[in-house]
Amino acid sequence: MIDCFLQWGGFENTEATVAELKASGVVNDIYILALSPIDRIPDGCRRVIDIDSLRSTSTVKKIAESANAEYTLLYTGKNHLRPGYLALCRMTRIADDSHAGMVYADYYAVKEGRSVPSPVIDCQEGSLRDDFDFGTLLMFDTAVLKEAVAGMDADYNAAGLYDLRLRVQRLAPIVHINEYLYSDVETDNRATGEKIFDYVDPKNRGVQIEMEKACTAHLKAVGAYLEPKFKDIEFNAGNFENEASVIIPVRNRIRTIKDAIRSVLSQKTSFPFNLIIIDNHSTDGTTEAIDEFTSDPRVVHLVPERDDLGIGGCWNLGVNDPRCGKFAVQLDSDDVYSDEHTLEKIVKAFYEQNCAMIVGTYMLTDIDMNPIPPGVIDHKEWTPDNGRNNALRINGLGAPRAFYTPMLREIHVPNTSYGEDYALGLYFSREHRIGRIYDVLYYCRRWDDNSDAALDRVKMNGHNLYKDRIRTWELQARKRLNESER
Questions:
Q1: Counted domains in the chain
Q2: Can you tell me the mean pLDDT for 34-54?
């Protein structure tokens, strides 16, 4: 029933995997995908397929050409894959029952000889991230695979596999089997805080351009692509005493909050501004530290009456305060502005670029503000012509962020502590320009107490599931917008 395609991982690992697959009783042919010549292959393999990259269009086409069984299994790892007892039968059964174009499953990650449950998440309509974690074992309906590959009209070096799953997604469901069906060795043991900037690392820019092209083609195919046409803004709504307000939600950041406050109060501007700090019931001395600055009339110290506010809820409280300025500018309580001209640059950009939201550029540093890799994060994917489409693929929007307050008051910030800024960016970009500043405006300090420094897998899955849900809602809204304009 199944033709299997394995990335070569050395003779020992590959031989062990081949033996496991053959023992299942449902495997037809096994092919080895190799980047370089192989002296010998394990018994039971049909042949070696020479490839240039596991994720290229060329490799995907070679797999489709060779597959003849009802299902095609692709193992993207290089280790000893151990399918669970009757697991491959289970995968084909679910694929058949659900008419899936592709199925994938939860698995056990082997870490230092110990098996650790590694659940993955459901693939939604808006699961457009090119780094979506399907695990290392993908099973395709071969007929759907061949149909998807037949429609490929671009030749990618790195985005071929991504392009394939987007095309499969348009033809048939991609189904998550939330059962632990195999074991594989975990190869990336970095903490989450070290992984989250991989997609914006400058050395990966070429790969990102390919991924953007594939995603944009998908959005056009499903009717969610937006042309670069934007609504203009007059910036004349409301009466504001201050031109800008810096908003800092904070809870228990005694080590960093004073630095953040000082970086705001040192700003030199041609307009009046203030600082609104929403102190979300701190218990570590942060409240008292903020009070040290309240003799400055520009400092507004708010403590919510409610105890159910996340970061987004704190933002709503600050933005709806009558003292909030015309533009609301973000600063995290861990971080600092890079110099005394940041606020001036941001406000100037609103008028020059006629935008509803500004996305800046930042430098990753340690707690002492020494630069750390990958250094400057400029989010160049926010291009004027395609940024709002590409925003559905990436997993973050850059920093610092700033918003035109009257519009932010209308739509409100989701009351969460993760992804709330991303939801705003997608919403604003649906009809309005997102302005860009490529000067480093902000030092993003990474340390042990960052909220995303070392999340466990379940927590990280929850964050990614929520962001995918945001993308799904936005995708649906953009489809309706396009339909209404026909």
A1: 2
A2: 94
Question: At 23, which CATH number?
Answer: 3.90.550.10
Rounded Cα distance between 3 and 125, Å, is 28
More confident residue, 112 or 425: 425
Q: Are residues 280 and 143 in the same domain?
A: no
| Contacts for 8 with CB less than 8 Å, ≥ 6 apart | 14, 32, 33, 34, 35, 38, 48, 78
- pLDDT-derived band of residue 299, with 50, 70 and 90 as boundaries? very high
User: Is 451 a residue whose pLDDT tops 90?
Assistant: no
- Is residue 192's pLDDT more than 80? no
DSSP character string of 213-232: HHHHHHHHHHT----S----
Backbone angles phi, psi at 312, to 5 degrees: -65, -40
Strands, DSSP E only, in 15-136?
27-34, 47-50, 71-75, 82-83, 102-111, 114-118
Q: Tell me which residue of 94, 166, 178 sits closest to 126, measured CA to CA.
A: 166
Over residues 14-24, the pLDDT tens digits come to: 999 999 999 99
Phi then psi dihedrals of residue 459, to 5 deg: -65, -45
Please give the DSSP secondary-structure letter assigned to residue 441. E
Asked whether residue 141 falls in the same domain as residue 256, the answer is no
Cβ contacts of 480 within 8 Å, gap of 6 or more: none
Residue 189's pLDDT band (cuts 50, 70, 90) = low
| CB environment 72-92: b (16+ within 10 A), e (fewer) | bbbbbbbbbbbbbeebbebbb
Range of the domain at 119: 2-189
Which segments within 219-370 are labelled E, that is strand?
Answer: 244-250, 273-279, 299-302, 327-330, 336-337, 357-365
The whole-angstrom separation of Cα 367 and Cα 370 is 7
Residue 452 exposed, middle or buried by CB count within 10 Å (0-12, 13-18, 19+): middle
CB distance 80 to 152 below 8 Å: no
Asked whether residue 289 carries a pLDDT value surpassing 90, the answer given is yes
Residue 396 banded pLDDT, cuts 50, 70, 90: confident
Q: What are phi and psi of 443, to 5 degrees?
A: -100, 115
Q: Any idea how long the chain is?
A: 486
Of residues 379 and 257, more confidence is placed in 257
The 3-class secondary structure across 359-400, one letter per residue, is EEEEEEECCCCCEEEEEEECCCCCCCCCHHHHCCCCCCCCCC
Give alpha helix (H) positions in 412-456. 420-429
Q: Do the domain assignments include residue 150?
A: yes
- Whether residues 185 and 248 share a domain: the answer is no
Amino acid 46: pLDDT: 93
Predicted local distance difference test score (pLDDT) of residue 190:
45
